[in-house]
Design goal:
Layout (H helix, E strand, L loop, with lengths): L1 H15 L4 H13 L14 H17 L8 E5 L6 H8 L4 E5 L9 H12 L29 H4 L2 H12 L9 E5 L13 E7 L8 H11 E12 L17 H8 L11 H11 L2 E9 L18 H4 L1 E9 L35
Parallel strand pairs: 1-2, 1-4, 2-3, 4-5
Antiparallel strand pairs: 5-7, 6-7
Helix pairs in contact: 2-9, 3-4, 3-5, 4-5, 5-7, 8-10
């Protein structure tokens, strides 16, 4: 009887929005046949212009948030199909890049290096042709003033050669260049504590299963006085006709749609991210909210989300730039034994002018 009632509930839920049928069938198929990421493409990272645009948008936004410290080491959460955004970071002057993903979607991206180097060499403006790409900028002109060191040095044949070798030899130092990639990653300890100047992600934080745990790991990786930036997409990722229809799914339906994937979307709204980063001890330097059109009504929300604020209900995207303060209070969320009450070991890089060149 209970099974029959659940079955009827399920059918009613699906009929409420026929667009739900596709993800539900997709999830059911995975329960039957298993899930494989093979051949799946998860973003835009196979395009050199996309990678260049994503990295430069983050770079501009974090510089505009007054992070002027040197950027030697960059980590990216969820690079997806390639490490092209990391390559863009290296070509802008960083020496180390670490990509961490939940699943390896990595495909061969050797061609991206020359293509991205060519974009820098031509001082190409930040590409705008990706209609859904955020964050938006005030100007898309080539941000020479925010690059590190000197363009000629960054793009020297010898240095590009070292980046090429590092791409072919992940985890092995090539001169001053080091590229690391880990998928899946489970432990914060995978990255050396307080070793990273910038952590960023593009369309990833809406997917991570546990946002507090993840922001906690990013906190551990960042040096004090350093910064993280995230563009987060709160839309339903095809689960419903309305952009915010995923907040109407009941838990069973959502579980079925997720199938056997290790993640789908976490359905955390904007305020949950802001709360998690602040609880961790980060200082939010910049937040840019993107509003979605009014669509689902409050009475359509699943009861788990019924207390959601109007602002959360209407926010479809968020960019945040967050500082790990130099003298930070101990993080309430740090794992036992963690030394998150960071005192500065070394120089205070925040607000220190960066050398510009070329
Ligand atoms: C929509 S794709 C975005 C890929 C890429 N950033 C881009 O802009 O094309 C989401 C990515 O987040 C990754 N992801 C999901 N959960 C994650 C986690 N807990 N840690 C790291 N990456 C995660 C996925 O594997 C996938 O690569």
């Amino acid at each position: 009887m209970v099974v029959f009632i659940r079955y009827c509930e399920l059918v009613i839920e699906i009929l409420r929005d026929p667009r739900r049928l596709r993800p539900i069938l997709g999830g059911l198929k995975q329960f039957a046949c298993g899930y494989s990421p093979k051949g799946e493409s998860v973003g835009g990272n196979m395009s050199a212009r996309y990678c260049y645009s994503v990295w430069l948008r983050h770079l501009v936004k974090i510089r505009q948030a007054r992070f002027l410290g040197a950027i030697h080491s960059v980590a990216e959460l969820g690079p997806g199909d390639s490490i092209g955004t990391g390559v863009a970071a290296l070509l802008s002057g960083a020496n180390e890049y670490c990509g961490l993903d939940a699943i390896s979607f990595l495909r061969s991206s050797a061609n991206l290096l020359d293509e991205i180097a060519e974009l820098y060499s031509a001082k190409t403006d930040i590409p705008e042709e990706f209609p859904d790409l955020l964050p938006k900028l005030d100007t898309y002109r080539f941000p020479l003033e925010y690059l590190q060191a000197d363009l000629t040095r960054n793009l020297s044949r010898a240095r590009i050669g070292r980046i090429r070798s590092a791409m072919a030899n992940l985890g092995v130092n090539q001169g001053e260049i080091l590229i690391q990639y880990q998928a899946p990653w489970h432990e914060a300890s995978i990255v050396r504590r307080e070793s990273v100047d910038v952590v960023f992600s593009q369309a990833v934080m809406e997917h991570v299963e546990d946002i507090q745990l993840t922001y906690g790991a990013l906190w551990q990786w960042l040096k004090p006085g350093c910064i993280m930036s995230h563009q987060i997409d709160f839309k339903s990722h095809g689960l419903s006709t309305e952009w915010n229809g995923h907040w109407t799914y009941n838990d069973l339906l959502f579980r079925i749609a997720k199938g056997r994937r290790p993640y789908l979307i976490n359905r955390e709204p904007m305020s949950a991210h802001l709360k998690a980063v602040r609880q961790q001890g980060f200082e939010v330097l910049d937040e840019v909210l993107v509003g979605g059109p009014q669509s689902i009504r409050r009475d359509q929300l699943h009861r788990r989300f019924k207390d959601m604020s109007n602002e959360d209900m209407s926010t479809s995207g968020l960019f945040i730039a967050c500082l790990k303060p130099v003298s930070s209070r101990p993080s309430a969320l740090a794992p036992a034994g963690g030394k998150n009450n960071a005192t500065v070991a070394g120089e205070d890089v925040f607000l220190r002018p960066v050398a510009t060149g070329a």
